[in-house]
Specification:
By secondary structure, the protein is mainly alpha-helical. It contains 13 helices and no strands. The chain starts with 5 loop residues before the first helix and ends in a 5-residue tail after the last helix.
Length: 236
């Protein structure tokens, strides 16, 4: 970014400078820097709502993607800026846009465990069962991070919406339950089992969730024992 670029002004919250540059040349609103990012991308990466609202007055391309395929909404979702996410959705941003990895904004909200952003996305139509290039759904992401509140959000979609696919396997054959156990998140595993997760489903290596090596040693043993104490031992 040059020292006086509209991109830098958006990033640094220099509303007056950004407005002046855009008034001189309105086409700058969709100009891309070396990262393929527009001023809107940089504004979305901050929590400065005023800058974003000013940029929206110049009718930016809400679906512009950077060099990695990220939209402004994806950036805001991953960064945890709920007010920015709300503003972009209100302006018409596509909630199910995908990047080069096939991931949506909901995937990133799930990875970060940001329930308020997840709820915003879902309430505005985000696909709970969106699948990325690793064949992972947002539920896989939430299980990996062990965020029970996000798991519950995904497991209880709004009335009339499709149910979350609880036992879908990713490219490695792992279901969300496999990933919860592998990551040592006993509470998350219990939530999934109580919701109906298949405890006998084998992954590509022939492992059922509660036999997966995961964090290993005594820690993994403790997770297995904890799960068994809450939901009983699996019948082999």
């Amino acid at each position: 970014m040059s020292s006086f670029s509209v991109h830098k002004a958006a990033l640094e919250g220099q509303i007056g400078l950004a407005r002046s540059l855009l008034n001189d040349d309105p086409k700058l609103i969709n100009s891309k820097d070396q990262d393929g990012r527009t001023p809107l991308h940089w504004a979305a990466s901050t929590s400065n709502l005023s800058v974003l609202q000013m940029l929206l007055n110049y009718h930016p391309d809400l679906e512009a993607k950077d060099s990695m395929g990220w939209t402004a909404l994806m950036i805001a979702s991953a960064a945890g800026h709920s007010e920015i996410v709300k503003e972009l959705i209100g302006a018409g941003a596509e909630v199910d846009a995908v990047n080069e990895k096939g991931q949506t904004s909901l995937h990133y909200a799930a990875s970060k465990g940001n329930v308020s952003i997840g709820r915003l996305l879902i309430n505005h139509g985000a696909d709970i069962n969106a699948k990325d290039r690793a064949s992972q759904h947002p539920l896989h992401r939430a299980a990996t991070t062990g965020n029970n509140a996000f798991l519950q959000l995904l497991l209880n979609p709004p009335e009339g919406r499709p149910k979350t696919r609880l036992n879908t396997a990713d490219r490695a054959g792992n279901t969300p339950l496999h990933l919860a156990m592998e990551s040592g998140h006993g509470d998350a595993a219990v939530v999934l089992i109580e919701a109906g997760a298949d405890r006998e489903r084998s992954n590509s290596e022939g492992q059922v969730p509660e036999e997966i090596e995961g964090v290993g040693g005594q820690e993994q043993k403790k997770v297995r024992e904890y799960v068994a104490s809450k939901v009983g031992r699996r019948i082999e």
